[in-house]
Amino acid sequence: MKLLLRLVISTLAILVAANLVPGVVVASTTTAIIVAIVLGILNTFLKPVLQILALPITILTLGLFYFVVNVFIIYLATYLVDGFAISGFISALLFGLVVSVVSAILGMFLD
Questions:
Q1: Tens digits of per-residue pLDDT, 44-64?
Q2: Could you read off the pLDDT of 65-81 as tens digits, one per residue?
Q3: CA dihedral 56, 43, 26, 88 (to 10 degrees)
């Protein structure tokens, strides 16, 4: 049940971010659900590997390279999901930040 609620929260966060961030296009609610699932899978399996591989660069940049890893994950999701498009690096960065903040705010009501 909690997994389904997390999916709904992520979907809502993606829809909010698509409306707030210029340069982000989500074709429909179904696309937002698919994006939430794909981002969840990528964040679970690929992101830890990328963080370990990028650890030296992340240390040198005092943690700022972590944002680049997030943007890469978002770009990979745009490649995998039809109907989801992001126009540039800044749009992807802002999209990731808005999704994180909205998910955190909505997630507070889940606990």
A1: 999 999 999 999 999 999 999
A2: 999 999 999 999 999 99
A3: 0
Per DSSP, what are the bridge partners of residue 11?
A: none
- Is 90:79 a contact under the CB 8 Å cutoff? no
DSSP 56: H
CA 79 to CA 67: how far, in whole Å? 18
Which backbone phi and psi does 54 adopt, to 5 degrees?
Answer: -95, 10
AA identity, residue 30: T
Question: Are the beta carbons of 63 and 45 closer than 8 angstroms?
Answer: no
Nearest to 39 by CA among 5, 6, 87, 2: 6
Rounded to the nearest 5°, which phi and psi values hold at 82? -75, 140
Q: What number of CA atoms fall less than 13 Å from residue 23's CA on the CB side?
A: 12
